[in-house]
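Ticket #4471: structure export looks truncated?
Reporter: QA, pipeline team
Priority: medium

Steps to reproduce: submit the single chain below to the structure queue and open the exported record.
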Amino acid sequence: MWADERVVNVFGLARGRKTTMASARSLTTDRIWRVLEKTAFAVISFVTPEGEPRSSGVVCAAARRHLYVVTASGSWKARQISDGDPVSVTVPVRRGGLLSLIAPIPPATVTFLARATVHPAGSVSIESVSKGLASLLPPERKSGCLLELAPEGAFLTYGGGVSLRDMAMPAAAIARVPVA
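Actual output as written to the record:
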């Protein structure tokens, strides 16, 4: 790559060969939401009523600045997460383009605290919330419990808007961006 060429990464930031610590800090709320709207996978973490930590990979979709997850009514998530409970959400963001197919390139991440709203099975049409989420689900899962996750505070990003080399420097790779 020539020194004056610019590349647009997954966070929509143009960058050349040289990056600065300002790259990650130039992320905006809108850019992060555009990345979240393209994702279909996240990890949600919560604490059970007994105080035990749990994490679960979920199929998800972002719409109207909330993240939505469908889960079976009898699943751990449906039994353990209640209205108003805080959950931690981490979304891995693939980076590296074709190079990531041949080299181990770590994903960037977007992490945030969210407040859960639980919609019991059948109370909300998945299609009315997110056609994207509905298209990812097999027919038998579309009647599940809908978790609506409303981000609070700030997004904590790692690796967004920086080069792979700068990902090794936390001061350059970490950014906090308000969720609204």
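Status: closed, not a bug. The export was complete when the record was re-opened. Leaving a note from the reviewer for reference: The beta strands are 7-8, 14-15, 41-47, 53-63, 66-71, 86-93, 108-119, 145-158, 174-178.
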